[in-house]
Amino acid sequence: PLGTAERVANWLGARHREQVVHAVDEVSLTVQAGEVVGLVGESGCGKSTLGRMVAGIHAPSGGTMRWQGRTAAEMTPAQRREATLAVQMIFQDPMSSLNPRLRVADIVGEAPVVHGLVPKAGMADYVAQVLERVGLDPVYMRRYPHQFSGGQRARIGIARALAVRPTFLVCDESVAALDVSIQAQVLNLFMALRADLNLTYLFISHDLGVVRHLSDRVVIMYLGRMVEAAPAAELFRQPRHPYTQALLANVPSLASRHKRFAPLKGEIPSPLDPPPGCHFHPRCPHAGPGCRQERPVLVETAPGHLSACHLDSGGTGA
Ligand code: SF4
Ligand code: MG
């Protein structure tokens, strides 16, 4: 049976200049093995921070993270090493995350050799297999990153992550820098890999249109808080939170279906000084006096559908 890939992050206090920013504030997220969770919000909402905590790149300053039910403290050193390899992150800009002085063979082959997954003598054969898996001709493995197109570099970044045989990929805006037609190819690759390798994904994007086709479940964040979470089909059919509704009205391909909602207006406030009460109130068409004072809590509005809005909790909103 599949293990449960579970990661819970409660809050993170990251130092930003002299102020403590709660980049992620009381977020609780469990990802099941084999699931694809889309994590969506505008830039500055804390989704990258959450993704980096899940991938083990940032340590949360509070809260709990679990992998297959265990915190790092509850793992043996061998289990910790295994968990570190099992969760890999794929970044937005492969040009800046690929070492320009290394050949593709070393970019992809170094970590599996270091971690003893393949012997040094078998590295070239292994790299060839991994490159084929991501749709790159192994004949290119002697080349350097700058000799590839943006789409090919994205595939090299994916190959590097896959080379250590992860079960869970955290993709942070992994297709955002690519042309739309190339985006579709790379998204198709992610989905083919999911089927072939039984992968679990946390797919982070500012673009609901991108996560729509590949997510089983979608989580919406606003200024460090989770405001809505639902099975993907349900979220796109029946968005509950005014922020989600506004985001949907902003996606050109979805706007006609959601024309009863007003598109998002105004700038996202600074995470250094979030508005009190419901963080969304300055931009919300339904804000009432209670929204400026009281923080709405997540309530289940339908099975598996959570929304944090006073309109849903029968509270003091509009
Ligand atoms: Fe809008 Fe109030 Fe709901 Fe926040 S709690 S989303 S301000 S109605
Ligand atoms: Mg980001």
TrEMBL record:
Where does the ABC transporter domain start and stop, copy by copy?
Answer: 1-248
The record's Gene Ontology biological-process terms are: peptide transport; transmembrane transport
Record flagged with keyword Nucleotide-binding = yes
Pfam families with a match to the protein in the record = ABC_tran, oligo_HPY
Q: Which UniProt keywords are present, listed alphabetically?
A: ATP-binding, Cell membrane, Membrane, Nucleotide-binding, Transport
Q: Does the keyword Cell membrane apply?
A: yes
InterPro entries from the entry?
A: AAA+_ATPase, ABC_transp_ATP-bind, ABC_transporter-like_ATP-bd, ABC_transporter-like_CS, Oligopep_ABC_C, P-loop_NTPase
Example of a GO MF term? ATP hydrolysis activity
Q: Per its UniProt record, what Gene3D superfamilies does this chain match?
A: P-loop containing nucleotide triphosphate hydrolases (3.40.50.300)
By sequence similarity, the record places it as follows: Belongs to the ABC transporter superfamily.
Q: Tell me the NCBIfam families matching this sequence.
A: oligo_HPY
The protein's name: ABC transporter ATP-binding protein
- List the source organism: Rubrivivax albus
